[in-house]
Design a protein that fits this description.
about 525 residues, alpha+beta, Immunoglobulin-like, Purple Acid Phosphatase, chain A, domain 2, about 20% helix, about 30% strand
Length: about 525
């Protein structure tokens, strides 16, 4: 690893010896573009947002090629795309202990408007990103366009879906988990991880750098602000709280989780208040869009109870509930008691016209056995039925207006009614659900989804054959969701089309097909 002194001397080799370090630290020259991971923004509020970038010059080095150098990074926000009307500026340090990542909480801006931003360091200037502030809390915006996505296994496909998402010019993107994959799996890979499964901080940093090197993903980040939550693969497949899938010692696993959480923070446009504390990082939060919409972003990994009846030391299984009665334990939680209490209070206080609950996976009950008997997958909400009833009961009891649940994880497009009792055909529908397919990650065969559709009448749609994302348009009276589907993920230039569209009417829970 290059020392800070060696790095600065290398940059300033043409300067007089006595001034090299000082001058190089303020205006270094780079042989390679240090902004190779692009720029991003996130978490808009009425008077600001978060800006992010990470400096890197060598993807094959754990330190990103910058050693222990501490580099000054300047940032600018403008009211025009040409960056002539600068409205905010400042500087930050890109330091090795933070992987040379920069997070800036920008404040003092006007609500409900678009801005442009860029970073610079030495002789290098980043691409210009586009972002925006949220509407004022008391305002009544006429519309909101957002998209949500999940599950982007790098080896299994190109990120062409993001090229189409960026062309949709949404106001906001919600990413709902599995931003990276720790493991290599699947068939017919089109590119490679080029390294083994990550366990250390340096290894997770390198995995994020690889994923974020994709130009289509960078373009989507530079198009609008993102809000994010995680699922399991940001750490380890099927992990639950402090237990790994394969029986790793608890202390070793928590050390791995701490490394993964730190790398996650370093590579996402998260506000400073979310900085991790060891193996803990609070990502659940809420975000308002005037009086039109409120987003509740949840974490169903960090605080959940362990899965019941696992196949291995931990992790998921598909079980007959009669042979695994622990699945119905009323004390088993997906969110943890503190997050559940926070969410119930947030439901009670929300005055928004639409309330969007962003979480990782499919919420509707999905019996996977055709005919007599039942089989449920234990890693999703079907493995925590009491916790699901508690969440749906909380929003129903508090008369939350127009609740809509969005999710990912299962790698297929699904649309469903959410009910307090899925086994009672007469039970009222209390919320609407849209679960998006994966950006690239491979799915189960469609015939298995057909079983779910046949056995679960509250499902309106299910299709696992194509990868993609979901595009949503909100107005006062209507939510419209377009299920976007890629023709292929084996080539970056593939086309994208709308597989199906559904609407939810104001005051009428339950999605309806739009033809």
């Amino acid at each position: 690893m290059m020392t800070r002194r060696a790095f600065l001397l290398a940059l300033g080799a043409a300067l007089p010896l006595g001034t090299r370090a000082a001058r190089a630290s303020t205006r270094p020259a780079f042989a390679r573009d240090p902004f190779a991971l692009g720029v991003a923004s996130g978490y808009p509020w009425p008077h600001g947002f978060v800006l992010w970038t990470r400096l890197i010059t060598d993807f094959e080095q754990p330190d990103g090629g910058l050693g222990d150098a501490i580099l000054p990074v300047r940032w600018e926000v403008a009211s025009d795309e040409s960056m002539r009307r600068i409205v905010a500026r400042g500087s930050a340090e890109a330091a090795p202990e933070r992987a040379h990542a920069v997070h800036v909480d920008v404040e003092g801006l006007e609500p409900d408007r678009w801005y442009w931003y860029r970073f610079s360091t030495g002789d290098a200037v980043s691409p210009v990103g586009r972002t925006r502030t949220a509407p004022a809390l008391e305002s009544t915006p006429s519309a909101l366009r957002f998209a949500f996505a999940s599950c982007q296994q790098y080896e299994q496909g190109f990120y062409g879906a993001y090229r189409h998402l960026a062309a949709d010019t949404p106001d906001l993107v919600a990413f709902l988990g599995d931003y990276i994959y720790e493991s290599s799996w699947g068939r017919d890979h089109v590119r490679a991880h080029n390294s083994g499964e990550p366990y250390t901080l340096a290894e997770y940093r390198m995995r994020y750098a690889l994923y974020k090197s994709d130009r289509d993903l960078q373009a989507a980040h530079a198009t609008c602000p993102w809000i994010v939550t995680w699922d399991d693969h940001e750490v380890d497949n099927d992990y639950a709280a402090d237990r790994s899938e394969d029986g790793m010692d608890r202390d070793r696993f928590l050390a791995r989780r701490a490394a993964a959480y730190r790398a996650y923070f370093e590579h996402m446009p998260l506000p400073a208040r979310m900085r991790p504390d060891g193996a803990s990082l609070r990502v659940y939060t809420q975000l308002g869009w005037g009086q039109l919409a409120r987003f509740f972003l949840l974490d169903d990994r960090q605080y959940r109870r362990w899965q019941v009846c696992p196949r291995r030391a931990g992790g998921s299984n598909t079980v007959d509930p009669r042979r695994c009665p622990k699945i119905n334990d009323p004390e088993r939680s997906m969110l943890g008691t503190r997050q559940e209490a926070w969410l119930a209070r947030a439901f009670e206080r929300s005055q928004a016209q639409w309330n969007v609950i962003g979480q990782q996976t499919l919420m509707a009950q999905a019996d996977r056995m055709l005919g007599e008997g039942r089989r449920f997958w234990t890693d999703g909400w079907d493995g925590y039925p009491a916790a699901r009833r508690k969440l749906l009961g909380a929003l129903h009891a508090r008369q939350l207006r127009n609740p809509v649940v969005i999710g990912g994880d299962v790698h297929y497009h699904a649309v469903a009614d959410l009910k307090l009792d899925f086994d009672d055909p007469r039970a009222p529908v209390v919320a609407s659900e849209f679960c998006g397919t994966s950006i690239t990650s491979q799915a189960m065969p469609q015939k298995k989804i057909d079983v779910v559709l046949a056995e679960n009448p509250h499902f309106k749609f299910g299709d696992a054959r194509q990868r993609g994302y979901v595009r949503v348009t909100l107005s006062e009276k209507l939510l419209r969701a377009d299920l976007r589907a890629m023709a292929s993920v084996r080539t970056p230039e593939a086309e994208c089309s709308t597989l199906a569209s559904f609407v939810v009417e104001n005051g009428r829970p339950g999605p309806q097909r739009s033809f």
